[in-house]
Design brief:
It contains 3 helices and 15 strands. The chain is mostly beta strands and 323 residues long. The protein has a 14-stranded antiparallel beta barrel. The longest helix has 17 residues, at 2-18. It is globular. The chain starts with a helix and ends in a 16-residue tail after the last strand.
Length: 323
């Protein structure tokens, strides 16, 4: 019985993961290297970012994602390098993915005040479950012992590749990322189940920009979007950021009715604190999809720190918001 339950669980995992999407972040511009490798070095300084997401907090199980990144811009070579690592865990068995990768971007001018940044991301991935967290039916039925311990499933390991490009001017930017080009294997059993290719299209425009000559910008209002498609799934995030030094507020809508239910997926509320070197943000997803009443919502926290600013050149800096 125990082996049968284990096999059934593995089959369910394979089927569910084959239809699943990647982890997502509501504050996608606060996790720029996860959004696109073209953002490696886009802060025109050294930058450290950390992100945490706790999804569907009312459910009695875990859906959490952790992310960490570092990037730096080398102005002498018009190049940015970065490192991105993230871990995603889901369910009582902590089904999850660990990914670690390196990134490179190159910045060049197309015409006056318009730049482009192609980028690439090469990563190593592990996919597996915490076998010791699982409880099988005969452990409950036959607590006195006598059952055999099934052999734990090994982790699945593979490599992956993402390519992106970003075009920007002083107030406008647009880009596209193609991820999982190598369609890495995530099956925990004998067959092969791959992650479908994901395409992300993103961009935005600064609608308001107020500041005094030779002084930091005091107030901005920015419209931004992110459209993603992966396998049979599509998703659109559309919203606005308002920044008046040092306060940041944001309001977002996620969903494409009727694909994400008649109402869409969620409204996202954001509050943050932003200085030249340090940013921190908190957002809450208000669920409005068919999961309303069960999933409730999601918490997300982001932090970033920038240092080693160059003395003069700012040609590597991208105008998009960091929340």
């Amino acid at each position: 019985m125990r082996r049968l339950i284990a096999i059934c669980f593995v089959v369910w995992v394979a089927l569910s993961r084959s239809a699943a999407q990647d982890p997502q972040f509501s504050q996608f511009y606060s996790n720029p290297l996860y959004l696109a490798p073209s953002f490696a070095g886009a802060a025109n300084a050294s930058r450290i970012c950390a992100n945490f997401r706790d999804q569907w907090i009312a459910l009695p199980t875990t859906f959490m994602t952790y992310s960490f990144s570092f990037d730096h811009y080398f102005s002498n070579f018009n190049s940015g390098i970065g490192f991105l690592g993230y871990k995603d865990v889901a369910g009582s068995g902590q089904l999850g993915t660990l990914s670690m990768g390196v990134q490179y971007s190159y910045n060049f001018k197309i015409v006056e005040n318009v730049y482009a940044r192609p980028g690439l991301h090469f990563s190593y991935r592990e996919h597996g479950i915490a076998w010791d967290k699982l409880q099988f039916i005969d452990e409950v039925m036959y607590s006195g012992g006598g059952s055999t311990q099934p052999e734990p499933l090994p982790k699945t390991r593979d490599v992956d590749l993402a390519l992106s490009t970003l075009v920007y001017s002083k107030r406008v930017w647009a880009g596209v990322t193609v991820d999982h080009i190598l369609t890495p294997n995530v099956s925990l059993y004998a067959d092969k189940t791959t992650i479908p290719v994901k395409v992300s299209v993103f961009g935005g425009v600064e609608l308001v920009r107020k500041g005094r000559l030779l002084k930091p910008v005091e107030e901005t209002m920015t419209l931004a979007y992110l459209f993603k498609t992966q396998g049979p799934y599509t998703q659109l995030d559309l919203g606005v950021y308002w920044h008046k030094n040092p306060l940041v507020l944001g309001l977002w809508y996620r969903g494409i009715p009727p694909f994400n239910s008649q109402r869409g997926d969620a409204f996202i509320l954001l509050v943050g604190y932003k200085t030249k070197s340090f940013n921190v943000g908190y957002s809450y997803d208000v669920t409005i999809s068919n999961l309303i009443g069960q999933a409730i919502g999601s918490h997300e926290i982001s932090m970033s720190y920038k240092f080693a600013f160059p003395r003069r050149s700012k040609k590597g800096e991208v105008p998009c918001p960091e929340f």
